[in-house]
Amino acid sequence: MKGEPADLDLVFDAAALRRRVVEILSKECGHDFFPLNGDCAEGDRTSSVLLLLGELLPRKGAVAEAGIILNKRSQQVRQPGDLCCPGGSVEKFDLFLGRLLALRGSTLSKWPCWRRLKTAHPEDAAFLSLLYAAGLREGWEEMGINPFGLTFLGPLPTQSLIMYQQSIHPMVAWMSRQKRFRLSQEVEKIVRFPLRALLDPRNYACYRINVPAHLEWKFKNERADFPCFVYTVEGRSELLWGATFRIVTQFLEMIFGFKVPDIGDLPLILGRLDENYVNGGTGNSVR
Fold first, then answer.
1. Which of 17, 35, 112, 154 lies at a 20 to 30 A Cα distance from 127?
2. Could you tell me which residues are beta bridge partners of residue 269?
3. How far is 245 from 11, CA to CA, in rounded Å?
4. CA distance linking residue 287 with residue 66, whole number of Å
5. Would 2 be classed as within a structural domain?
C-alpha cells in the first residue's frame, strides 16, 4: 500500500530501533539544526516537549513492540481532549537544570552527538540542555516521569504553534518500563499508540473542523481540513492532529521513510471547536 515504510521489524527490536533513531538524529544535528531564541518566530514563546518512545506492555502471548506515549489533555486546560507530548514553556529554573545536564556523566552527556556539539558549538549545546531540562521538568510535573528512566535519543526540528505564538522544540527520549504515573490535573490519561499502527496508512483520515466565528481569523476560514491519525485504544477511538501530529509524523518520515497519504485521498471525519477550546473547558469533539 502506498506510504508503507520499510524496516517494520524495527518496531519489535527495541535496541535496534534506539540505534536507528540515535544514528539518524545525530546526523541531522548540525549547527543549523538548532534555531536559537533569536531565530524563532518573532514574539513566539520557547517551549520544549518530550516525544516519548517505549516498549508497550504486550497482551498475553503477544510480542512486545515499540510505541509512542502521549498525554490526553484534561478539561481543565486549553485544547481539552487533544493528545500531546508532555512539555511546556521554558522557565528560569530550567537554566539550573540545564547546567546540570551539561556536566560529564549526565544522561544528556551519554548521547553520541553531545561531545561534538559541545566542543564545536557550545551555545547550541547549552540551548539543547536547557530544552531537555524543560521537557524533563514538565514530564515530571504532568505525569510523574522518572527522569533517570529516560534515554535521550536526539532532537527533532522545531514546530510553530501559530494559534498560541509558540515555538515547540521536540526532544526524543526512550522510556524504560515505568509502571506507575502520577497525573496532574492537566492530564486526563495516558494514551499509547503502537508504532506499527502509526505506520499503517489505513489509520489516517482528513479531520474537517467547523470553526466558530470568533476563531475564523486563526484558521483563515469557517472550515479547516487537517490530516489526522485515528486509532482505537481500550475501546475508544483517539484522534491525533495538529502540532503533535506533525511532530509524530515527521519522526516517522525521518526514521522509517513513512509519508502520510495525500489529504485528498483520506476518509473524512467531522469535528468542531467550541468557544472554550482556546481558553479551556469542554472543547474538541469528533462526530
1. 17
2. 207
3. 19
4. 30
5. no
Residue 58 lies in a domain: yes
Q: What is the CATH number of the domain that holds 119?
A: 3.90.79.10
Burial class (CB in 10 A: 0-12, 13-18, 19+), 173: buried
Helix boundaries (H) for the chain: 14-28, 93-101, 114-120, 122-143, 195-198, 216-219, 242-256
Q: Are 118 and 104 in contact (CB under 8 A)?
A: no
Is 3 inside any structural domain? no
Q: Quick one: which H or E segment has residue 88?
A: strand 87-89
Q: What angle do CA 26, 258, 223 make, to 5 degrees?
A: 115
Selected residue with higher pLDDT from 82 and 31 = 82
Query: What total number of domains does the chain contain?
Result: 1
Cell triple for 209: 473542523
- Cβ neighbours of residue 34 closer than 8 Å, sequence gap 6 or more: 121, 124, 127, 128, 155
Torsion of CA 105, 111, 116, 117, to 10 degrees: -100
Percent of the chain with pLDDT over 90: 55
pLDDT band at 164 (very low <50, low <70, confident <90, very high): low
> Residue 80: which domain range?
8-286
Instruction: Write out the three cell numbers for 199.
Output: 505506520
CB 164 within 8 A of CB 242: no
- Distance (Å, rounded) from C-alpha 221 to C-alpha 175? 40
CA distances from 233 to 156, 197, 251, 252 (A): 26, 11, 21, 20
pLDDT in tens, 91-110: 999 999 999 999 988 889 99
Q: Is residue 213 part of a domain?
A: yes
When mean pLDDT is compared across 66-75, 115-124, 137-146, 278-287, the lowest value belongs to 278-287
What's the pLDDT score for residue 229? 98
Mean pLDDT of 4-22: 86
